[in-house]
Amino acid sequence: MFNLFNLFPTEIQQEKAPLSESSKQLLSKQVFTTNQPNTIVQDFETFIEFLQLHKVEVSANQNAIAPKYLADINERLSHPTKIDFQRPSQKSYPYIHGLYLLLRSSAIAQVQLDKKKNILRIDPQILQLWQELNDTEKYFNLLATWIFYAHEGIMDNASRSLNDWWYIFNFWNNLPAKGLNFTSSKDEDWLRQLRLHNVALLYLFGFIEVKDAEPLAGKGWRITEAKPLPFGTALMHLLHATDWQRGMFLEYEEELEEERLLGVDVVVQQSTPTEILQEEFQALDLFPEWEKNLQLPEAESKDGVFIFKVSLKTAWRKIAIPSNLTLYDFSSAILKAFNFDNDHLHQFTYKDRQGCKQRITHPYSQDPPSTDEVLIRDWQIGIGDRITYVFDFGDWWEFNVVLESIEEPDPKFKKAKVVDKKGKASEQYPDYDEE
């Protein structure tokens, strides 16, 4: 049988170990409220409330929260971060940064364009589904979101080669029962590898106790001690005793298609990662109050005429295309608008509503989904979303694409056309000998 664990280095693979009776008893007696075993649910909902009350701007590229809101959010949290930066950024506040990643990867908070500004807004439909969960369900849905989805690749395309939880497990396995005192450069290396927002989340979820001190001049959050708590130790034991890791491999199903075609026995799970975590925990008769999960509703198709602004270097074209055409049609329209021959492969990359990077490729690439299969109306993007279109993987022509608006359907509008333009298009095959 194909070994899914070959996808990761052996030194960080986690061996299953039986759950001790003492850990099971501790976990079974744990009461979950908005502030037990710690304040993760309380602070998550405090953040939601702030976004409902304020039109919070975020940056165009990374969608980071604008600095002018950070101090206010920080003071509302149960554990404000003490820093001494003159120009703090979102990452300067590890609690804010960790909660932000949970909000984005849960899809409760999404970035939308509002009068040329990117705003971090709460999705009311998904929020309602969240509010229908009990406190136990909220805790474990947030835990599953952190384990399977929340990573800094949401903010940029240079995501880590491994899910953060492999680093967290590595940190935990080297965390002594008496804790760590971060007074030496060796101990500080652990913080750099783990990243401070993960330390903050370990604390908010009740895994560890954290002590901090006043920041040094011009410095950030100053952790002096991190110590494992009994609940955190028991929950880590539970994770070691289960096959929760199989939820990690759902994203690799397409990569395993070749193995299936060769007749290799590959088991593909039908459950979501969150459901897998729930199944594994409840197989040990734990957390019966955890019944429901935050299920994202199916995204609706959008009919109409889509207006895209497509830029290449200093030139741009605005292309209008009816929603019943495909992304392959859109690709052809882009190439025609910039006087390129349609003689190479292409791909579109974009972020879905959970902030995960997605890719739709040329039909010949044999990497589904392909651009001739996806209609514009079914493309899960929103107004203001930034998309990268790459044409010719050798010369790597990279176009920046932004969905500017969706106009009302027009039955007379049958094909894509350029409605505005600026700048001279680059030559696809410049005569280098004459330069």
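Second entry:
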Amino acid sequence: MNENKQYDVVIVGGGVSGTALFYLLRTYTNVGSIALFDKYGGFGQANSHPKNNSQTLHFGDIETNYTLEKARIVKAASDLVATYCDKYGSEKLFKIYPKMVLAVGQGEVDALKDRYEKFKELFPALHPIERDEIAKIEPKVVEGRDPDVPLFALHSTEGYTVDYARLAADMVERGQSARSKDADVFLNTCVDSTRKTKDGFELDSSRGKIQARVVVYATGAHSLTFAKELGYADDLIILPVAGSFFHTPNVLNGKVYTLQLKKLPFAAAHGDPDLCRGDRSRFGPTAKVLPMLERGQWKTIWSFFKLFDLKLSSLMAVGSIIADTTYLKFIARNILYDLPLIGRFFFLPNIQKIVPSIKAMDVMPLKDAKGIRPQIVNRVTRKVSLGESRIVGDKIILNITPSPGASTCLKNGEHDMRDIIEFFGDEFKIDDDRFSTDFPKRS
């Protein structure tokens, strides 16, 4: 790497968010030199890896914690990824399965029917189905269930299951081929710190110093570390939430979600076909707070405590959240789910709500899941911040992307792309005609 070269844009983070921006800048702008850095030997190896997320392209149709307003925003964003997959994808990138959200018991049935009336115009492909139709589509959901318990579901045939790691790699490949020069990609390269300079930024990396006019961090929880290093986001801290899953024999034909508490920013238990194991169904996720910014990377424990800062305001913010009985019960349950050997017995009722005939002996913890959702907490307001967080500074953007960050990666990348063009004034432009042609509005 030539340390004297100054890039117009440096992107740090080769997950699906960073690579989406790389693809957009290379394909739809004339920004000159661009560099993409990631510390792993491949793209999408952290939270974008299929073992570490739900593999779902979230639209807001079966995610019952979304308000209508949020669902409208998420759908418009996720449509970009669906369009990309349809245009360039193959079975390597994604598969389409049927999907449904299941209501069990009269209270849930009434709530889901009411939700359908409010959401049906936004999601015309979503259809209400009763017990007999549920049994035809997902036999194991009805088999062995008490016939006196009311059952209802909203169903769609358009359930995108995406391998976001492969999507990330595909977007880099297409971005590199979009133009013949001025794109450098560096894997196995750690970026350790960032300094503001007269001409932009200087980044210290394991390959040497990097000069950049504009920098974008798309490094999950680490983005907040770099933000604080540069004097941004003093009011934010992160609770790193680790997700795990359980495997069972293949009992589902598609995705089956359950109703969720609106107050919680975490998906309720759901069952999915597993892209990594076609002979298994996968249930989860569990959620537990771990004091590390990256699961399995023990050196990030110090990074977490440095970021947390152990200020009284941080402790009071976390205490205020935990004092809420909804969160307290949720945390306690999820601690039980992850106990060795016996955790599956505690999680079993969540699976049996979807597939009643499943037995404990059929349930095995999924090994090697290492995903972390960087749940953002405002220590001033003492509130959990739902959704993505994006910090825009002086010619720098820092993205912290909890769920549904992968689903909205291209829309988030579009926001970054437009801000970057603004940073440069009239020097570079976006080909809006081509962008709108390639990504037309979907019904």
